[in-house]
Amino acid sequence: MRQLLLVLSSILTLSSLDTSAITIASTTPDLSEMRLVQKLNCNNPQTQRAINECTKLSYQNADKKLNQVYQQLVSTLERSRKQKLVAAQLAWVKFRDTNCEFERSKYEGGSIASSIYSGCLENTTKLRTQQLQEYLKTDP
Q1: Residue 87 sits in the same domain as residue 134
Q2: What is the helix (H) or strand (E) element at residue 79, kind and residue range?
Q3: How many domains does the chain have?
Q4: Which of 50, 93, 97, 133 supports an S-S bond with 45, CB 3.0-4.6 Å?
């Protein structure tokens, strides 16, 4: 159906052009490069590619939440404590990424490696978010 609509819209567009433009525009696109975009169902991913994409999206959402909480906390701290938190966060990011690279290495070359890495990033990020939320509760 979408291909039919695409063809019809192309025909309508071409019919509104003058003849010299039609000659230039009449080249057909390579249909092998055209892809229909399927909606990603992360509640029930059916392929490893979908699982990998869904775990990546889950991590990205966890990372957004972490950054929100981090910004909230930073805004409450005086300068010297803020500098310490920034240093701690930079060290934590390096630890998280290196640790998750180690976890992924067990599956290196496999199609699941990406999912393992994203899942590790997500879980570790959620734990750090909880830590930062605790600091928010205890810091005036």
Answers
A1: yes
A2: helix 79-105
A3: 2
A4: 50
118 within 8 A of 104, measured Cβ to Cβ: no
pTM of the model: 0.70
Residue 84 forms part of a structural domain:
yes
Asked, for residue 124, whether it belongs to a domain, the answer is yes
With contact defined as beta carbons under 8 Å apart, do 103 and 90 qualify? Answer: no
Kindly report, residue by residue over 8-34, the tens digit of the pLDDT.
344 433 334 444 433 344 445 555 444
Q: Around 75, how many Cα atoms within 13 Å sit in the side-chain half-sphere?
A: 6
Q: Tokens 């992924």 identify what position? A: 104
User: Rg for the chain (alpha carbons), in Å?
Assistant: 24
DSSP, residue by residue, 11-76: HHHHHTS-HHHHHHHTPPP-GGG--PPPPP-TTS--SHHHHHHHHHHHHHHHHHHHHHHHHHHHHH
3-class secondary structure, 119: helix
